[in-house]
Amino acid sequence: MADDKLDALRQRIDAIDDRILDLLNERARVVIEVGETKAGEKRQFYVPSREQAIYQRLCDGNPGPFPSEAIRRVYREIISACLSLEEPMKVAFLGPQATFTHVAAMQQFGLSARLVPLKSISAVFEEVARGRAHYGVVPVENSNEGIVNHTLDMFMESDLKVSSEILLEISHDLLNRSGRLEDVRKVISHPQALAQCRKWLEETLPDIPLVDVGSTALAAQMAAEDETAAAIASEMAASLYGLKVAKQKIADNPSNFTRFLVVGRHTPERSGQDKTSIMFSVKDQPGILYRMLEPFHKRQINLSKIESRPLKSKAWEYIFFLDLDGHIADDSVRQAVEELRPYCQFLKVLGSYPKAAR
């Protein structure tokens, strides 16, 4: 009797899956029509604000029991596959494969995008600027280690725009060939990953030497070739290089996030939940810091980040990077930026883009 009921339930699941497949193909056909319409009007086929609206609408309307947190992951792949029917999307990222930047790129663009690893942040910017990639993904800051200066420096030289941002929770695992801590004779990783796990390493493997390499993925590759070595890297690196997890989540601070920026050649449309990034250099005069912030204060515009970098061409002068709530197309944001402009030696709007989901 139980077997009969189980067979009946499985038949219902099969029928539901068939309906889902029919609907996926119906969605794909509509997306192809959308792509043809956009091509005729020379409009961008990737619209981050539209994706955010889809995720939000579906999560808000989800009655359950399907978990809302899984909706974004499922629809990320549905949207990625459908976008590939409009135009194959090429996305450059700071490689190699299995780095956290690679994970962030997959989280944003899905498995149907063509993800291309490059050796430097400047190479990612150049690939997009020359039109050899539609978008690029680069790290900009870590919640524990701070800003990635090279990314900010690249905006000084580049006309690319920030198209979206990605927040990725960083989980450092200790990987080796056997999956046993007692086999570890050295630990290899990127210096930032080693720094984020230093307390655990000192307490658990106090006499084991630490080796700096260029990326967590390279560390995993080296550990795969050396049975005495362990790498601090991502779960994805373990899968890619055939390693086992000797210990999960070894970072000293369990709340560890890295923010990544997606760079492209266009500013996205408003989504209603946007962030704008600007960079500028102010003239050296009394009260300039007050004047720099006043346009935003009096319009009640929230500033979520202020970062400064030395101006390389002049000693003791600085470039400021500002993240603020709102879109440059919003009247209040546009007016605040224009009010700031006369106090600046130069000012550049790096982009307005949807805020990352937290």
From TrEMBL:
Source organism, top-level taxon: Bacteria
One annotated GO molecular function: chorismate mutase activity
GO BP terms in the entry: chorismate metabolic process; L-phenylalanine biosynthetic process
Organism, scientific name: Geoalkalibacter subterraneus
Record-linked SMART domains: CM_2
NCBIfam families found in the cross-reference section: CM_P2, PRK11898.1
CDD domains (alphabetical): ACT_CM-PDT, PBP2_PDT_1
Role, per record: Catalyzes the Claisen rearrangement of chorismate to prephenate and the decarboxylation/dehydration of prephenate to phenylpyruvate.
Occurrences of domain Prephenate dehydratase (ranges): 90-265
Site (Essential for prephenate dehydratase activity): 258
Protein name: Bifunctional chorismate mutase/prephenate dehydratase
Coarse class of the protein's main subcellular location: cytoplasm
UniProt GO cellular component terms: cytoplasm
Entry keyword set: Amino-acid biosynthesis, Aromatic amino acid biosynthesis, Cytoplasm, Isomerase, Lyase, Multifunctional enzyme, Phenylalanine biosynthesis
InterPro entries in the cross-refs: ACT-like_dom_sf (IPR045865), ACT_dom (IPR002912), Chor_mutase/pphenate_deHydtase (IPR008242), Chorismate_II_sf (IPR036263), CM_dom_sf (IPR036979), CM_II_prokaryot (IPR002701), G/b/e-P-prot_chorismate_mutase (IPR010957), Preph_deHydtase (IPR001086)
Compartments (UniProt record): Cytoplasm
Catalytic activity: prephenate + H(+) = 3-phenylpyruvate + CO2 + H2O; chorismate = prephenate
Tagged with keyword Repressor: no
Pathway: Metabolic intermediate biosynthesis; prephenate biosynthesis; prephenate from chorismate: step 1/1; Amino-acid biosynthesis; L-phenylalanine biosynthesis; phenylpyruvate from prephenate: step 1/1
